[in-house]
Amino acid sequence: MSGTEGFDPDRVKCVVWDLDGTLWDEIAVESATDALPAPRARMLAAIDALAARGVLSSIASRSAPSVLGRLDGVPDLRARFLAPQVSWQDKSESLRAIAKDLGIAVEALLLVDDSPYERAEVEALLPGVRTLDPAEVPALLAAFEDREQTPEARARVHRYRTEETRRAEAERFEGTREEFLRWCGMRLTVGAATPEEIPRALELAARTHRLNSSGLTPERLRELVGSAGHDLFTAAMTDRFGDYGVIGAALVDGTAPAVRSVPLLALSCRVAGRGAAAAFLFRLMERSRTAGAEEFRVTLRPTDANLEMRILLRQAGLRRTDDTAATATAAGAGAAGAGAAVLGRSLHGDLPEPPAWLHVSDREDIEA
């Protein structure tokens, strides 16, 4: 897809920049010295403006790999980019590598490149990736103008860079994956969302796909948060490397005394594979039982992206209910869509336990 017509900024998590003719005017390998060409000021300003709104930047350049080494010698410039790819391989392959390194879907990338050929190659082999000519960058920025600059968004580049450190340590670690996760000392805290956390919860509802149960829109989530009987919970995580920030949000409907329903459960893909999604879900079950509920339900709208969430719900013992009223309620919440269902399970008996390597606590206990 080319251009900004019909562009949805919530789908873009990383903008990938070409170098020669895009980030700067000259061709780096033709430089008479080891100094890199001077970047275009307007491009650096665009990268910084996107970063303030939580959008990452990377590099995909068909050039000599030595250019990346020269880029490492300019720390202020290099720090703006995550998982850069500089090689003679096709741009589509570079984009696949960037998505893998960042742990995001390739469709969450957007390429800015001055070459019509390179844009066409990406559009042909990665049809879910949008491409732009550098002249279209102002329109790209305009599409993000209304996005709120939350503290979580401003910290995102730093947190992804911390994730690079985690990944490097994991590769060096001599032991099993579980032993590494234990060594990380991960701690998850769950509690009622503070007013400052609501923008982050709305962001998770809009921008997460792999670990999103229902696709509830931010607008409908905002309405429900302000309605009687609905509580918004968030999960935050830390480990020995730093603070992940708020990585999960769940809306809990307690209007029926014996039932706790979750119209939305959404978590950041940054914590996929670390047990955080399961731990958050299980703690919500425990809190529901403590509040007197006998049944726990989650609205699920299956998509091509949220297989991981569907597996988690099944492993937690949730099964499709035959309660047509519950399905109708989910539809009224704006989360049903085609193929939506309500999954439920009893809260009697033993509940699932979080992974052994993850310490889970309620925020209220910590504050007390």
What does this structure look like?
The protein is an alpha/beta fold and 368 residues long. 37% of the residues lie in helices and 21% in strands. The protein contains 15 helices and 13 strands. The protein has an 8-stranded mixed sheet, with helices on both faces. Helix 10 runs antiparallel to helix 11 (218-225). The longest helix is centred in the middle third of the chain and has 17 residues, at 156-172. The chain starts with 13 loop residues before the first strand and ends with a helix. The model has no long low-confidence stretch (mean pLDDT 90).
Content of β-strand = 15-25%
Radius of gyration from CA coordinates: 22 Å
How far do the termini sit from each other? Answer: 52 Å
Q: Unreliable runs, pLDDT <50, ≥5 residues?
A: none
> Share of helix among residues?
25-40%
> How much is the average pLDDT?
90
The strand order across the widest sheet is: 11-12-10-9-8-7-6-13
Q: Helix/strand-derived class?
A: alpha/beta
Shape: elongated
Mind summarizing the main beta sheet? Answer: 8 strands, mixed
Q: How many E strands?
A: 13
Topology as a string of helices (H) and strands (E):
EHEHHEHEHEHHHHEHHEEEHEHEHEEH
Number of helices: 15
Topology:
Blueprint: E1 14-17, H1 41-52, E2 56-62, H2 66-72, H3 75-78, E3 85-87, H4 91-102, E4 109-112, H5 116-125, E5 130-132, H6 137-143, H7 151-154, H8 156-172, H9 177-184, E6 187-192, H10 198-207, H11 218-225, E7 230-239, E8 242-253, E9 259-267, H12 276-290, E10 295-300, H13 307-315, E11 319-320, H14 324-332, E12 341-346, E13 359-362, H15 363-367
Parallel strand pairs: 1-2, 1-4, 2-3, 4-5, 6-13, 9-10
Antiparallel strand pairs: 6-7, 7-8, 8-9, 10-12, 11-12
